[in-house]
Write a structure and sequence with these properties.
The complex is a heterodimer of chains A (369) and B (92). Chain A is of the alpha/beta class and 369 residues long. Chain A has 15 helices and 12 strands. Chain B has 3 helices and 5 strands, in the order E-E-E-E-H-H-H-E. In chain B, a hairpin with a 2-residue loop joins strand 3 (27-31) and strand 4. In chain B, helix 2 crosses helix 3. The chains are: A alpha/beta (369), B alpha+beta (92). At the A-B interface, strand 5 of A face strand 3 of B.
Chain lengths: 369, 92
């Protein structure tokens, strides 16, 4: 099929990060190392704009680790891209914030692990909560639009009201309350992170009530825990339809988790190919584009253009075949794989300790930093 | 939420950018992880959110399009109200 135009680029400029969140979506193992250079990224940003991209998110890892971040933001702004920084806030002081603002940064999404310092630091595996509070203030003072991002899971989901209170207190205009999705490190720690059915029901009520109460003041974006749904999420609004990701190594992916979840995905790299060719012509971007690739029950399903068969990475991780219907769907012959997990989670059983995310080392293995 | 007052001054909320999509020539609102493609009415309203009041904005639109302001007010209120609920527009 003909390639549509992409709208947004996720620029994962580094895998390095001072935090060790057990739900990180970064790969657990890296086969190679070597980050793209400043000029590589500048070329990628310009090619993305030419391809039709309107918005770029700088992410990682922790993007502030790279000293050339402001330079990349400036290049993106010069190419008329909307620039969004997805950050832990570690490494942000008044000078850095001002540098980013002058470069043209439109907005920042600051991650928080919880509202409470002890819980937040335990989840991050590092003492970072207090520094995040400083970062929020610094961003506001620099005139950068502030959003907060919380990843929600069993250990913090009961504190949703307090997280919303913190959003109000810090003067953020938007908050993302995203139930953890199970890829990367989160998949490894699934049994510890997945909330119970009761927790999920209560959280949904709290989020709905807060949305109504704060409409026009704070935009609340609640991401559902898909294991508890009966229809899959419309992942990426379709493979290779709107989004592309470039990872720190220069691999271009339909989504950030595809390289680790789908081992046989043929990876294309910006060092070897143009972004335009990769988006339009590569095997990886065309593999699940449109509806031709779909098996039953998706192929004849009236909802196939609404949820696009769900998530290819989830199908791969749970069923071993990325072309299967997302097992979250109650029409999937593999739904039992999800139900079995839910039964375990909802039985009275102590949770295992989670494993913290580790940083990549020069030999490609992962080790504590 | 209360009805928008005539003297309210609509403006884009913090972190929201209005620009022309080079691929379509149409207006889009860009904000963190979001894009709204505007219809012509939305675009014409938003380019006039430059500090003037709601009633001045309606008068200007009515003049430019040669229509009766009374027929426009409800549409403008609805469009801006919808964008306000999504935190894309605010009022001074």
């Amino acid at each position: 099929m003909t390639a549509p135009r992409p709208y947004a680029l996720l620029a994962e400029i580094t895998y390095r990060c001072p935090l060790h969140c057990p739900y990180c979506s970064n790969p657990q193992q890296l086969r190679r190392t070597g980050e793209l250079t400043t000029s590589d990224w500048q070329r990628v940003l310009c090619e993305a704009a030419q391809l039709g991209v309107l918005q770029v998110g700088f992410s990682g890892g922790e993007p502030l680790v790279r000293r050339d971040l402001a330079e990349l933001i400036r290049t993106a702004r010069d190419a008329n891209l909307y620039t969004n920084l997805i950050t832990s806030g570690i490494g942000l002081d008044e000078n850095r914030a001002s540098e980013l603002r002058v470069a043209g940064l439109d907005s920042a999404q600051l991650s928080f692990q919880a509202d409470d310092v002890d819980l937040a630091d335990e989840i991050a595996g590092a003492r970072t909560h207090a520094r995040k509070l400083d970062a929020a203030r610094v961003l506001k003072e620099a005139g950068i639009s502030l959003s907060l991002n919380f990843v929600i899971h069993r250990r913090n989901i009961d504190r949703l009201p307090q997280m919303i209170d913190l959003t109000e207190a810090l003067g953020a205009g938007r908050v993302e309350l995203a139930n953890v999705q199970f890829y990367g490190w989160a998949f490894l720690n699934r049994d510890t992170l997945l909330p119970t059915r009761e927790q999920v029901a209560r959280a949904r009520e709290i989020a709905d009530a807060a949305k109504a109460r704060l409409a026009g003041k704070i935009d609340i974006f609640y991401v559902l825990p898909d294991y508890y749904e009966t229809r899959p999420k419309p992942c990426l609004y379709g493979w290779g339809q709107r989004y592309l990701t470039v990872n720190p190594l220069g691999d271009v992916l339909p989504c950030p988790t595809a390289s680790s979840a789908i081992p046989d995905l043929r990876l294309e790299n910006v060092r070897a190919q143009s972004l335009d060719w990769i988006w339009r012509k590569s095997e990886s971007f065309n593999r699940f584009r449109g509806t031709e690739w779909m098996p039953e029950p998706c192929r004849s399903c009236p909802e196939r253009e609404r949820d696009f068969g769900g998530c290819r990475c989830q199908a791969a991780l749970l069923t071993g075949n990325p072309a299967n219907t997302d097992p979250v769907c109650s029409l999937s012959s593999n739904r039992a794989l999800i139900d079995r997990v839910l039964v375990d989670i909802n039985s009275e059983r102590p949770a295992a300790a989670w494993q913290y995310r580790m940083n990549p080392t020069s030999n490609g293995a992962c080790a504590p930093s | 939420m209360q009805e928008i007052a005539d003297h309210a001054q609509p403006r884009l909320a913090s972190g929201v950018r209005l620009q022309i999509d080079p691929a379509t020539g149409k207006g889009v609102l860009l904000f963190p992880e979001g894009i709204v493609e505007l219809n012509e009415t939305g675009q014409e309203i938003l380019v006039r959110c430059d500090g003037r009041t709601l009633s001045d904005l309606v008068l200007a639109l009515a003049k430019d399009y040669d229509v009766d302001p009374a027929t426009l007010t409800a549409d403008v209120r609805e469009t801006l109200g919808d964008l306000q609920r999504r935190k894309l527009v605010e009022f001074a």
